Amino acid sequence: MDEPLAQGTRLGPYEIREQIGAGGMGQVYRALDPRLGRSVAIKTLARAIAADPQALRRFETEARAAGTLDHPNLLVVYDVGHEGPVAYLVSELLEGETLHQRLQRGPLPVRQAIEVAVQVARGLAAAHARGVVHRDLKPANVFLTRDRRVKILDFGIAKLVGASDGASTAPVARTSAGLMVGTAEYMAPEQIRGAAVDARTDLFALGLLLHEMLTGTHPFRRGSVPETLAAILNDDAPELPAAVGAALRGIVRRCLEKSPEDRFHSAHDVALALELVAGGESTTAAHAVEDEAASPPRRRALALGASALGLAAAAAVGGAWLGRGRTGPVVATPSFQRLTFRRGLVRSARIAPDGQTILYGALWDGDACRVYTTRLDNPES
């Protein structure tokens, strides 16, 4: 390992203040940008590695990939440069701990695990929208700040999948035939096989993170790396405790499907499903979001069914409300009337006191959740 840089050492315009981390790939320092009076983090690449052109290109890829991204859940990269034999990357300075450090103290409470996973999913969605697949998502690359923000770190082996066209599942060509890239324990099956990867590869790693946050243990870790890789390829993950809840268990199971086609369609869908669970929505609602990973025709049918059934049920509830206050038992045949004709997800619905007005929350055509109103005699919302 290289000798740490002394306090006061200059890397370009930056002044080293203290070392705050070290690893096989290099060292991390707290530094000052005197031009702005701003504290920053500087990651240096070990000199032996920097002398390798391929490793240096990978380091520069990290800067290039991260530099294209701008999202609250992604580490902000300010600069990249060389000072003699030292290659360095400058980023925002974070205060807190990695998820790996936090897991040393045991599993997270369910609500906190969901909160972390939602922010990771949002960060991944932003990266995928820019055509960047992380490929090395693991607890050591997820940072928990002191103000409860989550940051995804280290795009060192990220892969640029093309122009920013929002295509979250554009395939990534492997670096060379049969080459595995990533950290063994957090690889998806397609990475282990050296096959093409895409955004859904990161979703498998997110499922591993969620399982580990909820249980404190990695679902496929075995006594050796080959055994771990074999387990990822062939074994089912252990079932999560019943206390986790059926909806959340279903989300984790969907992320950990062996085939990318069977996982969620996008990180955005994972975030939405987790938010529904966090908001106390039903298992049915969470599964409706999971089914976004289905084929497009089936997905449209499921979404239309969710909206129609949601408000048809609301109309039936309205009939029951109108029956209140009568003496004696009320026996009525429920009637159903379709009130919505758009594609999306209905989260909840309520009948107003007049018995004719319905208010409901819905996510239409991928838009944010909004509150709508309609009447039984006029289906326009």
Task: Note down, in words, how this protein is organized.
The longest helix is centred in the C-terminal third of the chain and has 27 residues, at 296-322. Helix content is 35%, strand content 20%. It contains 11 helices and 14 strands. The chain is globular, with a radius of gyration of 25 Å. It is an alpha+beta fold and 381 residues long. The protein starts with 9 loop residues before the first strand and ends in a 6-residue tail after the last strand.
The largest pleated sheet is described as:
6 strands, antiparallel
Global geometry? globular
How many helical elements? Answer: 11
Order of helices and strands: EEEEHHEEEHHEEEEHHHHHHHEEE
First-last Cα distance: 65 Å
Return Rg in Å: 25 Å
Q: How many distinct beta strands? A: 14
Strand content range: 15-25%
Quaternary status: single chain
Keywords:
globular; three-stranded antiparallel beta sheet; alpha+beta; 35% helix; six-stranded antiparallel beta sheet; 381 residues; 14 strands
What is the structure about, briefly put?
The chain is of the alpha+beta class and 381 residues long. It has helices at 47-50, 53-67, 99-103, 110-129, 189-192, 199-215, 225-234, 246-255, 267-278, 283-290, 296-322, and strands at 10-11, 14-23, 26-33, 38-45, 77-83, 86-92, 96-98, 132-133, 142-145, 150-152, 159-160, 344-351, 357-364, 370-375. 35% of the residues lie in helices and 20% in strands.
